[in-house]
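Recap slide: BioF2-like acetyltransferase domain-containing protein, sequence and predicted structure.
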Amino acid sequence: MRFEVILELDRIARFTGEMSALGDAVDAPASARWESIGPWLHHRPHMRPFAVRTFDGDRTTGIAVLATSTRRGIQRIVKAGERGEPTSLLYDGCDALDHLTTAIGDALREVSAPWVLRLTGLPADSVAARQLASATRSARVAPGSSSPRLDVGDDQTAGTVLSRNTRAAVSKARNRIASDGRSLRLSWIRRPDELAPHLGDIMTIRARRNDALNRADGVDDAELATFRDTVLAHCRANRARVLLAHIDDVVAAYAICLESSDEAWVYSNAVSPDFLRYSAGTVANADVVLSYLADPVICHVNWGAGVQRYKMSGPVTVQRATELTAWSSPTLRRLERLARSAPRRLPRSTGSHRPPPAD
């Protein structure tokens, strides 16, 4: 079995069909699919693609799509995607995983500059992480971010997946909307042409909510474009469901769910600051749960990284991701550890410490 390193985005895109099939084979999360990886790379020209593909004749047996940048003479290699999102190597069987991790190690040893590889969001107790650590020789495997995962399988009911407090909060919100003479409408969208007219509202709500919570993500052009194109790509692949909660004729809250295997991952959900009084976000999140409870295929709702109160309602298991960090040499690993532990030097003061005179 052979391997190749692909550094051109358009060449990687030629293997989207193979990536889809391999993703199905390993039950890869939606964020490890080309519909997420492609937009992320496209809108970050400062990140250079670095893909390792293993193949047997004309058949692709494994692929890992990474991205690289150079800082201070060190090549930084990461997964192609957001740090907090789940990921997976794509391969066809245990032997293919062994070949792929070995190929990644061999490809990295061919990199001329010192390098650091960091992969976040790998599955808990990841076999791939352990094999990569062995293949790259100087590596560390550690626990990563936590993601609450709700069981909505056949043995669950509305009374088990939504706590009594959540059900009461939804009832109170609906009553408040009605008592104010307003209307609530919940609708699910799958097709890109249905979603397109609402994307502007969704992106505005996301940006305003992030700003209200003092979050930095989702405000620059690259982030916004990645968000838009990712959602549309998953819609085209029939892997996305989007919930819109309208109060009167205005989008008050939304939830974007990306589906893979038996899991729905809540890629993004937010409420407009204008509708916090009506708990529109709580109403929307509850409908996400109830809709997937009725779904014959989806058995789990993954709320995404970060343990928050609203994510912990019902039969939830907190999954801990795995992080792999590998270095081109033990010396570089020691130098990076020393750099992290060194105290930061404060800039030398050039003026007097006396307070200015009062006016």
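Residues 103 and 164 are 51 Å apart (CA to CA).
The mean pLDDT is 92.
(End of recap.)
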